TrEMBL record:
Source organism of this protein record: Linnemannia hyalina
Highest taxon listed in the record's lineage: Eukaryota
PROSITE patterns to which the protein is assigned, alphabetical: GNAT (PS51186)
Record keyword Transferase present: yes
Protein name (database record): N-acetyltransferase domain-containing protein
Pfam family name, one: Acetyltransf_3
GO CC term (a single one): cytoplasm
Family: Belongs to the acetyltransferase family. RimJ subfamily.
MF-aspect GO terms: protein-N-terminal-alanine acetyltransferase activity
């Protein structure tokens, strides 16, 4: 047994706000609820079905191990327990059903203190989202519905974000359609970046949605790493 496997897992605070389950569709039935350690086996199985999820992200390893999933959840739970808000959800077909996808939200630290609202002068709050759906459940609108919910209900209404951003590989048309379905618009069509795990440069595009039109002049900073 490794040292990591031997230690007790970081618990998720069940009282964190926005944990769910939240019903976001009747037909097909679609719920989002906080990811749990019990989701790890299915999370690992799905991510290893093929390399689509690996190839579509900048960080996932392949093969994806239970230790990778556990570390991902522990880091998320530490941040969530500090903020008092859940930030990572499983997409499910029933309130306590098996995970069929993942979506998360976070805030961009590189914008903290450096971007201000053009009208009020207060510091901007810039959120971001990321997601994946099981290859067994793609093409059913799960990612689009979950993205809309996280953008509108969580980041805008609950957390008071001014802007929400997301990135996709320029050639990844399905992912781009998800962002557009969530109300986002492309603000950077082509940005060539180096992806360390692939050891090559890839072209990404950047999307954003604004709470009010006053912040539309605040665009993605291409001088930083995405």
């Amino acid at each position: 047994m490794t040292q990591q496997e031997d230690k007790a897992p970081v618990p998720r605070n069940k009282d964190n706000k926005c944990s769910g389950p939240f019903k976001i569709s009747d037909n097909p039935p679609h719920y989002v609820s906080a990811v749990e350690y019990t989701d790890i086996p299915e999370m690992v199985r799905v991510i290893n079905l093929d390399k689509d999820i690996y190839n579509g992200t900048a960080s996932f390893q392949y093969p994806y191990l239970e230790s990778h999933a556990r570390t991902r959840l522990e880091n998320a739970f530490i941040r969530d327990n500090q903020s008092g808000y859940t930030s990572c959800w499983a997409m499910r077909s029933s309130p306590d059903g098996q995970m069929i996808g993942w979506i998360h939200a976070h805030f961009l630290p590189e914008d903290s203190g450096t971007r201000v609202h053009p009208e009020s002068g207060r510091e901007l709050k810039v959120g971001a989202i990321g997601y994946w759906v099981s290859p067994e459940h793609t093409g059913k609108g799960h990612a689009s519905r979950a993205a809309r919910w996280v953008v509108q209900e969580y980041l805008f209404k609950e957390r008071g974000s001014d802007i929400v951003r997301a990135e996709a590989y320029t050639h990844n048309v399905p992912s781009r359609k998800v962002l557009e379905a969530a109300g986002m618009e492309c603000e950077v069509e082509e940005w060539t970046v180096f992806i360390p795990k692939l050891q090559k440069k890839m072209v990404i595009c950047c999307y954003a949605i604004h709470w009010d039109d006053a912040t539309r002049s605040v665009v993605t900073d291409k001088t930083r790493d995405p």
